[in-house]
């Protein structure tokens, strides 16, 4: 009890009892917000059969990295994917691979990602739209991340 009384006495002059403060009630508190700046490529839009990298529309599947990696990924449907596609990703040395599996979530076979697991590279699977958003967040944080995006041709 004596410790509590000493603490209350010490804090008495700092904050009046019964008052609460937050950024909206303290008129002298100013906060300046600035957008984060990143040199990483960003995925700026997506749609059926395409994604936009730094506002450039790219049709077809693509691999994009936060350190400038960018190349066409030779597949237009999930059924065309194989171990060689993921082995290609293992050579990039990223800390995380974000696999955008198209319009819906489909997981790669364990044998396909074995080279990535062997070098302890993380693999996250999600639909391509979610992969674009996730890539932008992680790349903006300065992480070495790769987005392997399966971009399927629109049904027609």
From TrEMBL:
Highest rank taxon of the organism: Bacteria
Pfam families, alphabetized: DUF498
Record protein name field: Mth938-like domain-containing protein
UniProt organism field: Variovorax paradoxus
Lineage of the organism: Bacteria, Pseudomonadati, Pseudomonadota, Betaproteobacteria, Burkholderiales
């Amino acid at each position: 009890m004596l410790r509590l009384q000493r603490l209350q006495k010490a804090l008495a002059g700092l904050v009046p009892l019964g008052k609460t403060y937050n950024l909206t009630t303290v008129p002298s508190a100013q906060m300046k917000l600035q957008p984060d700046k990143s040199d990483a490529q960003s995925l700026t839009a997506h749609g059926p059969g395409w994604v936009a990298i730094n506002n450039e529309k790219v049709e077809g599947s693509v691999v994009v990295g936060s350190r400038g990696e960018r190349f066409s990924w030779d597949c237009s449907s999930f059924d065309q994917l194989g171990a060689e596609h993921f082995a290609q990703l293992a050579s990039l040395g990223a800390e995380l691979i974000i696999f955008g599996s198209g319009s819906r979530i489909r997981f790669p076979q364990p044998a396909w990602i074995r080279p990535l697991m062997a070098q302890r590279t993380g693999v996250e699977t999600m639909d391509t739209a979610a992969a674009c958003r996730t890539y932008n967040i992680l790349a903006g944080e300065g992480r070495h991340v790769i987005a392997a995006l399966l971009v399927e041709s629109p049904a027609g």
